[in-house]
Design brief:
The longest helix is centred in the middle third of the chain and has 32 residues. This protein starts with 6 loop residues before the first helix and ends with a helix. With 390 residues, the protein is mainly α. It has 3 domains: 83 residues, SP0561-like (Orthogonal Bundle); 186 residues, Cytochrome c oxidase-like, subunit I domain (Cytochrome C Oxidase, Chain A), CATH 1.20.210; 81 residues, no CATH class.
């Protein structure tokens, strides 16, 4: 009796087929996708995205991915060994070698970002955007909501920058960086402490300004120290994860590491402001937090995903490195020039800093090909979506 044909021969994997359909037909394929960066994305059934798009998004040569899938699919299960023959030692799908990787990464939890997202939304819907709306009403109308006081402005700023933006970026980073890097998150035990420290730091500062004005400096300092500790844990975990990654064609890691470094500077400035009991330091703090931390993370994540998901064709690759340097220098000059000193010296720092920030952003977008109409994505990209991002 002839041997049955391999399943791959009768039901080949089509590059245009979705990962969800492939996993449904061949459950062993899930381990291969996880090793190449899927890591529980899309739930148990897997995402509804094409195989060729997955290969491009995770920098896996399509032929190598197809070869790994065939090896996993055709590997006979141990319980199907002939009774009269000794059962061969067959590697499980998780042990099958994968092109470009020496070991399979452990499974990454898919809900690691959830508490960060919920806390970020909760903060912005209370003391963030909502308080900002009240502050605007106090500033522009006579609705009887009281006068606009500096502590009300400070509370709004801390919640939006370190609460909403900070928690959101940290949570998303813990989720996507292992998948970008194709390696498990390093020091995962730091995720929960960094969340509670970040949240507690913001709440402490807000409570001091709001409920205990006479002891606001103490709450400010305690909250600042909590923010510094959270930023340190976050930077250590993300930095080690990026260091363990195999370098890809995009150099997005440098933007993320620079953003993490600026986050450490920003939280350090919170402590300095609290020790001096001087809110004037906020003039330096906010540019560092927004242009240093937030913008670098936007540029870094964008460098990794925009060419793939928007179908951009990067051009002038040599422009990106000068743009990166110009942006960091622009942040430093703008922040230094933000101090309200006397004389024109501060303006001479701030003005070139602003020019460098504009030039860096323009060069970054140009290097990505954001101003071109051609599409290089294997998946159709909705024109309205590409236009909205641009």
């Amino acid at each position: 009796m002839p041997a049955p044909a391999p399943r791959e021969a009768t039901a080949p994997v089509d590059p245009a087929e979705s990962l969800r359909a492939i996993i449904a037909r061949f459950p062993a394929a899930r381990a291969v996708f996880d090793r190449h960066g899927l890591m529980n994305c899309g739930g148990e059934a897997g995402p509804d995205e094409r195989l060729d798009f997955f290969a491009k998004a995770h920098h896996v040569p399509l032929e190598a991915l197809l070869r790994d899938l065939r090896a996993a699919i055709e590997a006979p299960p141990p319980d199907q060994a002939a009774p009269s023959e000794p059962r061969p030692t067959v590697a499980s799908p998780k042990a099958i070698p994968v092109a470009g990787q020496s070991a399979a990464p452990r499974g990454e939890p898919s809900g690691r970002f959830t508490p960060f997202l919920l806390a970020a939304l909760g903060l912005t819907l209370t003391f963030g955007a909502t308080l900002g709306m009240i502050n605007l009403a106090r500033l522009t109308t006579a609705w009887g909501w009281g006068n606009l006081t500096p502590p009300s402005i400070w509370m709004h700023a801390y919640v939006q920058v370190f609460g909403f933006v900070g928690l959101f970026v940290m949570g998303v980073a813990y989720h996507i960086i292992p998948r970008f890097a194709g390696t498990p998150l390093r020091a995962p035990g730091l995720v929960t402490p960094s969340f509670w420290l970040q949240l507690a730091g913001v709440v402490s500062i807000v409570c001091g300004f709001w409920l205990a004005p006479d002891a606001a400096r103490v709450f400010w300092l305690v909250g600042g120290l909590a923010l510094v500790t959270a930023a340190t844990l976050f930077t250590w975990s993300i930095g080690r994860t990026l260091a363990a990654a195999t370098p890809g064609p995009e150099r997005f890691e440098r933007w993320l590491l620079a953003g993490a470094a600026w986050l450490l500077v920003a939280t350090g400035l919170v402590v300095v402001a609290a020790l001096a009991n001087d809110p004037t330091w906020h003039l330096v703090l906010w540019p560092v937090a927004l242009y240093g931390f937030t913008a670098n993370w936007i540029f870094g994540v964008g460098r990794r995903i925009f060419p793939i998901f928007l179908g951009l064709k990067p051009r002038w690759p040599r422009v990106e490195s000068p743009a990166y340097v110009a942006h960091q220098l622009g942040v430093a000059l703008w922040a230094a020039g933000a101090w309200p000193g006397d004389g024109a010296a501060w303006l001479w720092l701030r003005a070139p800093g602003g020019v460098l920030l504009v030039v860096a952003a323009t060069a970054y977008l140009s290097s990505l090909g954001a101003f071109r109409r051609e599409s290089a994505s294997p998946m159709p990209v909705e024109p309205w979506y590409r236009g909205y991002i641009r």
